[in-house]
């Protein structure tokens, strides 16, 4: 079975990563009731003999001794943050036995919401340390298939150091796929320089990532509010279950409106949970992560995949009746279930992947694809651009779930809005001096970054211009009788 390594960078990346590990452990606990270390666990965890201090050989058979999420010699994740606060919270929380100091890289002062500090200053300062820990982690993988980077675009560490790590991965592990989950700031973000950080990071994502899953804070907040409103209206039942999206990791209920970030992080974690399900569990039509890149990315720069989840409240968050399977497919293509502010049904599809979990038949997949196809606009040269995957293990508390990944031009408005916000600051040269005093940072970095983003937007414009053109069915072979 293939293995993956998770690299969590910055406050957002580490908070989302922490929720992912928590939910993954719950899933495996629900499936693996005997506590036997199996192939499913090996995809993201090592079984460490704690009697040898965690540096001895893995134990591949028998009972679980000590699960470690891979970073360096004992776990399959690397936690990086230039402020130690969030990482220290993780080490003092319920997952403290999963992580240890061997997989951490932290500093004290932080990046000050400055991409240049994260990328140019801390990147070069910690380069050797990061490479060493990544190599040690890779050594414990029998078949390393993918690196997952989780970061935000608006801050300094997530955007700057996160994209620096992405560059390192391409240099050190060029054959291993690089999936990036990027959380984009909203227009009302409290970090004034977030447009600079995001556009500078976008250039690196354009050049060095294999697949990027863009997620907007605004969409996550809207989804959490909708769930909260439905709970209050009684549409989802009156009981909120413990250890759910709308409760803390410790199990004590709290208000979504007072502190929404845990619930927002949980949605992103559930995206990763579904994305990696085929790598962790068996299925009749498992989809490898490399198949996603191969089938959904027809052009190297157009690797931004719009994701949608249904149900949104996984892990039995509320007492809600299961959605009918057909309705779940319809939901996955509706605006309300997208993790960015977009409506893919009114834009152009290059390709689409459907990852279904639970007791679902291939015939159900095909029937729903045929039902939805007339309402979706695909490029003329890829009318049958569907990739499907079936994992037999559903999320905890549900009979089935669906993750849709669409390479769709609906992502363009997100990039256009980001460019507009960047130009408002850049035209006045506002805050540039904070970046330019960092060694290696020049004003040309800004002009190259905005040029790269403009080129990307233009590529989407060219595709959109083909929408609505003549749609001819390919001629079929005729058999002479």
Radius of gyration: 22 Å
Mean of residue pLDDT values:
84
Tell me the helix content.
Answer: 40-55%
Major β-sheet annotation: 6 strands, parallel
Low-confidence sequence ranges: 56-63, 70-74, 238-259
* SSE-based structural type: alpha/beta
Q: Give the strand order of the largest sheet, numbering strands 1, 2, ... along the chain.
A: 5-4-1-6-7-8
Number of helices: 16
Outline type? globular
The percent range for strand residues is 15-25%
Strand and helix order: EHHEEEHEHHEHEHEHHHHEHEHEEEHHH
Number of strands: 13
Distance between the termini: 49 Å
Descriptive overview:
The chain is an alpha/beta fold and 481 residues long. 40% of the residues lie in helices and 16% in strands. The protein contains 16 helices and 13 strands. The strands form three sheets. The chain has a six-stranded parallel sheet with strand order 5-4-1-6-7-8, sandwiched between helices. Strands 9, 10, 11, 12 and 13 form a five-stranded mixed sheet that branches. A two-stranded antiparallel sheet has the order 2-3. The chain is globular, with a radius of gyration of 22 Å.
